[in-house]
Amino acid sequence: MLWCVVVLATCLKVLLIKTYYSTDFEVHRHWLALTNSRPWRFWYIDVTSQWTLDYPPFFAWYEWCLSHFATLFDSNMLKLSKDGYISEGTVYFQRLTVIASDFVLVYGVYLLSCYLTTNPIRKCSQYKARWKSPTTIFQVLVLGNMGLLLVDHIHFQYNGLLLGILLVSVSHILNGRHCWAAFWFIFLIHMKHIFIYMAPVFFIYLLRNHCMVNEGKRLKWEWRNADY
């Protein structure tokens, strides 16, 4: 059922390729050119354009990776200049990178769906109508989220990718793999710093559930080996 939802959502995203896009489209186009044309040590100090790089390093390296595929569509989009650039190849390439990045979101949804269908407390497999099961409803609400469609596939951003990493981290928490959960959350912060507002929640949860144990009515510190 997950793949039915994925196919339907992807078809809708493809239909939105030629729609309106905001200035963020040119911002990310410039970052492709910047990371491809300049050594990494100049990425955060280059002022060729007003669209200076203001995302954390991991996202900058992600743009660098994407830039190596850009020449397959239009190599001119990688020319660093203060002026904007647009072409049909550029539109198709950048839109498709967002669609492809959303498969990280699909993976995060898959992990949480597995938890919903296997956890004895929250088991959802008893629902005979698959489209009405909590798991399917969760998949539709996330993968078909109209907010993400609007912001990512019309306005133009990569929030689906970032939300996918967050869901991967949450899935590890639910399955008791605290170190992996911490790893993916730290990775997420290095992709987009705005998620740091969630850090206190992760910190308190991991402190209580990984670093401390119950001893009667008292809590006791306990050093645990990494449970990868």
From TrEMBL:
It is an enzyme of class 2 (transferase). It holds the Pfam family Alg6_Alg8. It is found in: Endoplasmic reticulum membrane. Keywords: Endoplasmic reticulum, Glycosyltransferase, Membrane, Signal, Transferase, Transmembrane, Transmembrane helix. Its EC number is 2.4.1.-. The keyword Flavoprotein does not apply. Its main location: endoplasmic reticulum. It is a multi-pass membrane protein. This is Alpha-1,3-glucosyltransferase. It comes from Panstrongylus lignarius.
